[in-house]
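Thread amino acids onto this structure.
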């Protein structure tokens, strides 16, 4: 099976559950893994942005990775989040990621706002340091800078160890221009749950999803229907999910999906500062939307 086959479909950007006293909640993490693996997602993304890794120390992150590896009952491919805004430090971290995992996901450097040449050179250094293949991650709403279509294509064509891009800009036009000039074996993933069906119709290889934490079966079924060119059926699921999906981001992510998972009895509704839980009113709104999805 090729790496493209292994990553075809839905990857779930796993949250990291915490206890009320701010420890990693491994009991809830096991529940979450059973939930998403049982929901037939195709791969797991651990310690990505949704997992709140910037609030975790290295020991906690390694413990989470070890736990996921041990409790990955279907031996799904696992992608490890490895990003930041210090290129040299990220390269060191990427070089240390255990090769029992399948790839790293590395976000475009945030806060210091590099230009396009800087973005390319950053991914060049990180990809050359990593023993694992790299999936780049463009999320301008969080990072404060955007990987332009021309830069994404340059990365795809000139950096052989970068095998894919998670594209989470809100621009379907940008997604189109990236797809237009990509090598055929380069994987382009939808990174925006609200426009996953349009992304799939434009040739996305799959999706890396927050919503799939809570609704793994419905979400991954939707993506598989797109892959099978059954867009009428996929659209029905997309429309069924859309209000719930949007509710997960209204007051920040992963606050929304943690609220949903707590309502479902899978995790406790705890985040680490500076993130805080959703308001009581929004919690009740999400609860009502979940009731409609049963």
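Threaded sequence (294 positions):
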């Amino acid at each position: 099976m090729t790496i493209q086959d292994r990553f075809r479909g839905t990857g779930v950007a796993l949250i990291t559950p915490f206890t009320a006293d701010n420890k990693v909640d491994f009991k809830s993490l096991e529940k979450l893994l059973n939930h998403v693996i049982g929901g037939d997602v195709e791969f797991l993304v651990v310690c990505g942005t949704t997992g709140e890794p910037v609030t975790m120390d290295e020991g906690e992150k390694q413990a989470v990775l070890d736990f996921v590896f041990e409790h990955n009952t279907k031996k799904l491919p696992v992608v490890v989040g490895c990003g930041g805004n210090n290129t040299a430090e990220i390269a060191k971290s990427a070089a240390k990621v255990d090769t029992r995992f399948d790839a790293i996901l590395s976000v475009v450097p945030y806060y210091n706002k590099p230009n396009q040449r800087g973005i390319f050179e950053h991914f060049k250094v990180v990809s050359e340091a990593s023993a694992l293949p790299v999936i780049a991650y463009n999320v301008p709403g969080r990072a404060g800078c955007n990987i332009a279509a021309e830069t994404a294509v340059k990365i795809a064509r000139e950096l052989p160890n970068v095998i894919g891009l998670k594209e989470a800009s809100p621009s379907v036009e940008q997604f189109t221009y990236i797809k237009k000039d990509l090598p055929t074996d380069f994987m382009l993933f939808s990174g925006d749950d609200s426009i996953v069906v349009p992304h799939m119709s434009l040739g996305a290889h799959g999706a890396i999803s927050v919503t799939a934490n809570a609704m793994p079966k419905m979400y991954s079924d939707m993506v598989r229907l797109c892959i099978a060119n059954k867009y009428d059926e996929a659209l029905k699921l997309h429309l069924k999910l859309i209000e719930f999906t949007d509710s997960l981001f209204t007051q920040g992510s992963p606050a929304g999906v943690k609220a949903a998972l707590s309502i479902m009895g899978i995790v406790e509704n705890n985040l680490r500062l500076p993130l805080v839980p959703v308001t009581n009113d929004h919690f009740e709104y999400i609860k009502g939307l979940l009731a409609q999805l049963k």
